[in-house]
Amino acid sequence: MVVNLLTTLVKWGHRTQLGAVRLATSLVADLQLIVALAVLGYAVLLSTAHMTAATTAVVVSLSGGALLANLVSVTILVVDGLLVPALVVVTTDVVDGRRGGLIT
Questions:
Q1: Which tens digit of pLDDT belongs to each residue from 24-50?
Q2: Which of 5, 73, 74, 77 is the most buried (most CB within 10 A)?
Q3: Contact of 30 with 8, CB cutoff 8 Å
Q4: pTM
């Protein structure tokens, strides 16, 4: 939980569109983990029934959703890291007067 919150804070400063999507997926994961922790805390500390099958299902479902959101965030990070530097930009070479110089 703490690590996920710290990574969300790190993603806060990115100013790209993919950075905003990664921040959104991190916020979704944080929200799901906070709710799962609240349900677990209520079941263990305050409820007289303690952990039931339904409570376990809710906690597992919420933490699984947080895992899925983190996997989406990591996938976006990997795709962003692999594809963006590999893009080839065609430019005009003004010094030599040639067209079609490639910059990678």
A1: 999 999 999 999 999 999 999 998 988
A2: 73
A3: yes
A4: 0.73
